[in-house]
Amino acid sequence: MRPASRADADGFVPSITGSLRTSVLYFWLATAARRVRRTGNKHSTMLIHTSVKTSVHESFHEPLARFQESVQDRIQDLDPRILGELEGLWKRENAAVPAGEFGLAPVDFDEVLEMLPSVLSESRIIIDNATSRERLDYEGQPVVAIAIGGNTLSRGLTLEGLAVSYFVRSVSAYDSLLQMARWFGYRSGYEDLPRIWLTEELRGWFRHLATVETEIRRDIDRYMAGNDTPTSFAVRIRTHPSLLVTSAAKMADAVEVYSAFGGRRIQTHFFDVSPSAVEDNLSALRGLISSLDADHIRVEADGRHSRYLWRNAGYKAVTRFLREYSYHPESFESSNDVLIEYIEKRVRQSELLTWNIAIVGKPTGDPSATVDLGHGIAPGRVVRSRLEGDVVDIKTLMSRRDAALDLNLSKVSKEQPLTEEEIFTLRRVQLPHTGLLVLYVIDKDSAPNSKRPSSGTKRVALDAPDDLVGFGLVFPPADGEDSQAKHTYVSADLSGIEIEEIDDAELDALEHEELP
Asked: pTM for this structure?
């Protein structure tokens, strides 16, 4: 799809085979389906973006034109092989994204086939780059176009009626990648039809960028809830081993960010479900249990939960478990290096030397619904379905109630649930230097709760190879300045920012100035 090296760019000829062939055929099918529906944008565009080199863009024109002519002729001759290929492709894609999920009616292949000849006859191949004479023009009659280009397409030009993107170009920085994210999204009237072909590497990069954006929004929400101002904090940006945040010149004022967890609750919600990781985590939990003193255990049940609770365990048992636990690479803040470094810094300040450790399970009288962890510990599995998508994300593992399970709540009103702030206030008084580790064994077959109203995000069965181990950490507020652990984030250096103060008299005059 692109030259192997710069030296191969001149004379390069792409092959219209494999995934490129499939994507082009699907574009014509999707365009025909939109004509059957008569909804949405009147234009229909496919993007091919493989290189920034204009010579590579030009090389696509002739092979695509020959392919288009061949498909036209074969459909006109009712060639059973091309008709079978098109029908099979249409049925597979319809099954992958059902139209009914968006309130749309499915389009039968016969209806699509009826529209295909006119779509093919109107389809144009347009090279749009800095040197091309013919450019995309959406003024006037409906356009059906396969657009091949580079920076003009990735840095600002809006592609009307975008239905298919074929994207294999590598990038080096977040900001370049973010420009290209405009190609994603829902398209009014044909939400079920857009498709994107891209490499596994780019798929991972876009997922990482979505994580970065989510974390930035989360940080901003947290700061807005307090009394911070834009000059007292700098938004953190998670780094990536293969991508720059932006160009080196724009990173002159970037500094490494450190994390502090005092007065916070951290929990796992991303999970690595590879068989080795699942087995390692169950082994890490069993190892933790075997290291704990059986004389310090307390067993509780309240009808909704059963709990095993160990008090005053040494911090090394916790750091050993964290070191042996296999994290998902996209786990937000939950990574062993950062958490262990943070705990050990607090230990050097004579804090977090002792921990309370709990296993929270679902009470059950059925032994088959429990998991034997050894030493007489057999909690009931908890149920946590996952969000639909490629990454196993359960969203929420730990309840707020579980963050207070080692506290004395006898003097707390049971009429109103405790707030997060109230829990940490109690912890500062009762257990000012003690951390809490809460563990869960999650049923590998966890299914969505059909009785719970939908929040707009689709949940599916967990479908893991074995039961998963999740955990939550509750850190008491630090006595003094919170210790900090080095993290994989950068932010802007605000130390040199000077605020120009407005003179009070001048401000008063401005506020009372009479308007003309």
From this structure: 0.58
Tell me, what's the pLDDT at 263? 84
C-alpha distance from residue 260 to each of 26, 285, 344, 371 (Å): 50, 25, 12, 34
Each residue's pLDDT tens digit, 55-79? 888 888 999 999 999 999 999 999 9
Which has the closest alpha carbon to 405: 494, 350, 456, 472? Answer: 472
Q: Are 336 and 471 in contact (CB under 8 A)?
A: no
Taking residue 220's Cβ as centre, other Cβ atoms within 10 Å add up to 14
CB atoms within 10 A of CB 506: 9
102-114 burial string, b = 16+ CB within 10 Å, else e?
A: eebeebebeebbe
Q: How far is CA 383 from CA 307, 380, 440, in A?
A: 15, 10, 10
CB 260 within 8 A of CB 346: no
CB contact at 8 A, 317 and 288? yes
Q: What share of the chain is helix, strand, coil (3-state, %, to 5)?
A: 35, 20, 45
Q: Calculate the CA dihedral of residues 501, 506, 512, 516 and round it to 10 degrees.
A: -110
Which DSSP helix (H) or strand (E) runs through 354?
A: strand 354-361
